[in-house]
């Protein structure tokens, strides 16, 4: 059951991430999705090299790694507490990897975005205290 859950969660996170990245680039360039993909060097490379497989494998491993660390941390405690901490840490690892993936793969390069929409290549809804690779 855990393996099935990890695979389903991995597919969901990968699909959400790829949709979020394309939506952000579409918003920042004020172009249709395919036009944004064709004119943006980083997004075109993202699609051309098909990083989906690597992203999927990483996302599949996030929850089990976090869960295992949580269980290890709670070694010798009650089973329910260990499972609860494992689940919380699994979700935390998934969230951290999701944010890191977005930060590395979403920032726009100069000339591929409208500065009025995305100042400095950062979407306006991206938290200013979180780093993002731009330029």
Query: Largest sheet, if any?
Result: none
Residues in helices, as a percent range: 55-70%
Shape estimate:
elongated
Ranges with pLDDT <50 over ≥5 residues? none
Rg measurement, Å: 18 Å
Lay out the secondary structure.
Elements: H1 2-29, H2 33-39, H3 41-48, H4 52-73, H5 79-105
Task: Describe this entry's structure for a reader.
With 135 residues, the protein is mostly helical. It has one domain (2-121). The protein has five helices and no strands. It has helices spanning 2-29, 33-39, 41-48, 52-73, 79-105. The longest helix is centred in the N-terminal third of the chain and has 28 residues, at 2-29. The mean pLDDT is 79. The chain crosses the membrane at residues 56-74, 81-104.
List key phrases describing it.
mainly alpha, 135 residues, 68% helix, 5 helices
Concise structural overview:
With 135 residues, the chain is mostly helical. It has helices spanning 2-29, 33-39, 41-48, 52-73, 79-105.
